[in-house]
Amino acid sequence: MGMQNKAKKPHVLIFPFPGQGHINPMLQFAKRLHSKGVKATLVPTVFLSKSSFFDSSASIDLCTISDGFDEGGFEQADTPDAYLSTFWNVGPKSLAALIKKLGHTAHPVDALVYDTMLPWALDVAKQFGISSAAFFTQSCAVNSVYYHVYKGHLQLPLRGSHVSLPAMPPLHVSELPSFVAIYGLYRAWLDVLVDQFSNIDEADWVFFNHFYELEPEVVDWMSKFWNVMTVGPTIPSIYLDKRLENDKDYGMNMFKPNVTACMSWLSGKPKDSVVYLSFGSVASLGIEQMEEIAWALKDRNGYFLWVVRETEKAKLPQNYIKETSHKGLVVTWCPQLEVLSHESVGCFLTHCGFNSTLEALSLGVPMLALPQWTDQCTNAKYIEDVWRNGIRARPDEKGIVRKETIIRCIMKLLMEDGKKGKEIKKNSIKWKNLAKKAVEEGGKSDKNNNFLNYFFHTKMSILYYTIKKQKVKSNYEFTYSQVVTQTVGGSLLPEMAFGIMPKTAVEDLMGDENNPKKPHVVIFPYPAQGHINPILQFAKRLLSKGVKAALVTTVFLSNSSFSDPSSTSIDIHTISDGFDQGGYEQAGSSDAYLATFWSVGPNSLAALIKKLGETGHPVDALVYDGFLPWALDVAKQFGIPSAVFFTQSCAVNSVYYHVSKGLLQLPLPVPHVSLPGLPPLQVSELPSFVALYGSYPAWFDVVVNQFSNVDGADWVFFNIFYDLEKEVVDWMSRFWNVMTVGPTIPSMYLDKRIENDKDYGMNLFKPNADACMSWLGGKPKDSVLYVSFGSFASLGIEQTTELACALKSSNVYFLWVVRETEMAKLPYNFIEETSEKGLVVAWCPQLEVLSNEAVGCFLTHCGFNSTLEALSLGVPMLAMPQWTDQPTNAKHVEDVWRIGIRVHPNEKGVVRRETIEQGIKELLTEVGEKGKEIRKNSIKWKNLVKKGIDEGGSSDKNIDEFIAKLL
């Protein structure tokens, strides 16, 4: 044990699909890993290892598995279906046996990089607890198409002539991958390509064989779902950065190239004079198309080098090779990279397979695109219209590209015909330089190729924070040398090799722990009670864990709210919303308030952050309300990490997200909506701003614009615990770094770990606590109906009357919160006439009320805070939603969580007294089977809430993880 001289190399298995176009880039990636000190092993099939030409100089180990066709490979199977089904059956067992076997050697497998066309390999890796990376050998754009098919967002067969997908140019059907454009063609292959995404969410990394600048928009979009890394182009180093010694070719060929003949023939030709033609290792042209190409080359009378595989030669015109020998060379295979890098080659007539496309792009050779099938049509679209380093030769109505078209395109590319060829040549050189830059030291792909360093760095970070938290002492001195193998804290962890430990981390561990600097987090809620309460409570959680937390409120609210300074140590700072004397009411309308706040707020917040930085308390992170997306832009100006805090449910925000992305068209054309992770929703169960499109347009804009820049946030917080909405949380986690951190209600009602945390500490209304609690004190258990519609909702006079009459007729104890502004809507003498059974107050301490054993049911508007409070305290709900998110919350109360009943309105939108009375009976006075089940479920959720926020619960862990990132 202790220090050792040499760290163990991580061992990575590279597992490509058994085809030339898959093996080459993954084998080259293996060489890159090897050059960085990783032990890399390629896993081909038994048949390929015997029948292909592998270069033993590559220093990559080979280990074989069976595909079920060890004697003949794909050809032995007769059909794609037969080959794929057998490989899918035999392969997993064979791969598992190999990993098990290697585990008993000195080189157990640390990570598996698998071809995405073999998704079952990820399942095998999971069996052994091995980290895994999915490797896509086709472009991001092409795989985005397949992903949309997999998700059902792109329905097949296609109905229109064009397709629009995120981060991609509009695509004509003819520009889509052929398996999608011509549905039913090679169905087995379509299934393989779509199934690449069946389990990809479980992969630790997702690699693409290109460099970031080639497809930045699609890469960024995909990075919302997965840990995407661009690691290419994976072509031999001699053609790019020249950092891998003797790396001149891929090291594996399924066909034997005629190197000497090709290169000798090219050497005497003028610069940029030769057209090189190749259609790869699989594509097969029809006889008519072969003849058109042949006559185009002959008629043009220019130099050409044409690769025609042995199986394709019979399609050439009779005596063609002999008749064109003075200008052309026809070979069965050639060293393509050497050919493309030769200065005499001026143009590449290609099928646009992605490897060939990348090779030409990396070597600066303009392309004449003649795509055949699979991904090639989409690649051709990008060559012509996105990267602009080539021209696509268009077929006629019979699908044949005629010789005249081919000749015309060659003339343009060899600059025999004007400006376009010059522009394409210029772009080709630009892309060549960018490809080289990406794989050179410090380039984007080069950094991503250090993924195993990141992997071990993560383990180091876990070690660091474990030591920090447990105050473990080591007999050894910490170091920040390049690689260190070390035993720390006795048997805390075994000897492991870690990447670089940052100097600051080492100094922190070795330095003075008596006065560590507290991270400073500024919490910025939207200025309304329902937003301030949960975010302020989150601040208290941070404070309890050693974080300096400051609440930012508006000038008006800080002067007009009722706060208890003794109940919390949260600093309060103010900014202006433009209405310092009267707040929202001073504005006169929602539009006026929001427009002014959006104009004044950013400057005021920026001034505060600047001031805090100058006074010795710089801001380490900003947690801002989703209603205030401009706060994120302010944080970015100062380089401050930021977290968006959503005060409404995941379900509700998923609806708004789909609207923001145009995935839910408004006004709604159908009576039901189905969204990922949610139950089917009737229009009446959607948030009112969506269901009643056009109502409150200013607020609609606010809730939808929450997503205008959310992709730029470092964290996305939801005020729930994971188990409450796990399906939606999992779905959203594909886009963002989602953390459930709630429910954020005072600790006294949950885990009791925060001392004296009995209320939120801020109220826009002054509660009549003594009167409420005294009145409740003498009432029997579960006998009182508590009624409240929150701080904002306003009932009509007719609805208030119906509710009052229902309470009076039901003859139950009730405690009804009627805000001062709403009191005039009560029936004449109602308070006096019901004083024996009821108490009406202007505001009350809701948490104290709900936690009182006398309260047996909560008649609520289903505001999300009220819903969470009742759920957290085990109180069944009688749901009477009014607007905004409340109908969706009511749906979940009744049908998902099953902790209440929704009372439905009549055709006039009024819930009648008889309906309310029936609900009260079911939940309070005549509790039947349904009421008992609801009570049982309410207790279940109460316990789950406590578990989620208690030490080690999902929300508690997420808060700890957030804080750890700030240390």
CATH architecture of the domain at 520-747: 3-Layer(aba) Sandwich
Strand order of the largest sheet: 4-2-1-5-6-9-10
Main beta-sheet annotation:
7 strands, parallel
> Mean pLDDT across all residues, rounded?
88
Q: Write down how many β-strands occur, each being a DSSP E stretch of 2 or more residues.
A: 36
The helix content is: 40-55%
Structural class: alpha/beta
| Highest-level CATH class of the domain at 520-747 | Alpha Beta
Number of helices: 38
Strand content range:
5-15%
Shape designation = elongated
Give a brief rundown of this model.
This protein is α/β, with parallel strands linked by helices and 967 residues long. The chain is elongated.
Account of the protein in words:
By secondary structure, the protein is α/β, with parallel strands linked by helices. The chain contains 38 helices and 36 strands. Among the domains are: 175 residues, Rossmann fold, CATH 3.40.50; 54 residues, no CATH class; 228 residues, 3-Layer(aba) Sandwich (Rossmann fold), CATH 3.40.50.2000; 183 residues, 3-Layer(aba) Sandwich (Rossmann fold), CATH 3.40.50. Helix content is 41%, strand content 14%. Strand 31, helix 31 and strand 32 form a beta-alpha-beta unit. Helix 4 packs parallel to helix 5, helix 24 runs parallel beside helix 25 and helix 31 packs across helix 36. It is elongated, with a radius of gyration of 34 Å. The N terminus is likely disordered. It comes from Gossypium stocksii.
